[in-house]
Amino acid sequence: MSFIERARRTVREDLDAAMGRDPAAESRVDVLLNSPGLHAIWAHRAAHRLWKKGPLTRPAARLLSTAARAATGVEIHPGARIGRRFFIDHGMGVVIGATAVVGDDVMLYHAVTLGGRSMQRGVKRHPTLHDGVVVGAGARVLGDIEIGANAQIGANSVVVKGVPAGAVATGIPATVRFPDLPGEDPYDALYSEPAIFI
């Protein structure tokens, strides 16, 4: 598959993810033209390709990420690794650090920080979010920790320890609980946890 074909497939996947996760999205054209979260993701993908090429192209990668931040309000370091069908709803104020790893089908709301807790250079300092994670508005996920697949992080929560797969984490500092009912979908469990939306 050529680069152009891969890029088209990726854009289609991203648009489908946005349509599936944003009830306000009226059409793919609307999302294509008006979603700062998607624009930031697409700029990041280009910047990340430049970043991976090595030291000579890294200044260009940083310039592209800075321009994307100015245009979208979303700051994603070009070194961050981001999976497929990633979606940032609203976008404004999202910060994703250099060593962050984001899996497939992850969703972030506005003002989320995937940040570091260390000033040490050359080490992984930012979180890893596994597939299907949802992070609520204003949440801070800090340090080299792992957020398990399909976990949910509540709005304005501060997470500094790992969260197991399928768990719900809310509060400052975040406390973890699992869905109350056997087989309860983690997304449905959000409605059982009012703090997730505050």
UniProtKB/TrEMBL annotation:
Residues 7-41 form the Serine acetyltransferase N-terminal domain. Pathway: Amino-acid biosynthesis; L-cysteine biosynthesis; L-cysteine from L-serine: step 1/2. It comes from the Bacteria. GO terms for molecular function: serine O-acetyltransferase activity. Keywords: Acyltransferase, Amino-acid biosynthesis, Cysteine biosynthesis, Repeat, Transferase. GO terms for biological process: cysteine biosynthetic process from serine. Pfam families: Hexapep, SATase_N. Signal peptide: none annotated. GO terms for cellular component: cytoplasm. Belongs to the transferase hexapeptide repeat family. PANTHER family: SERINE ACETYLTRANSFERASE. This is Serine acetyltransferase. It comes from Phycicoccus avicenniae.
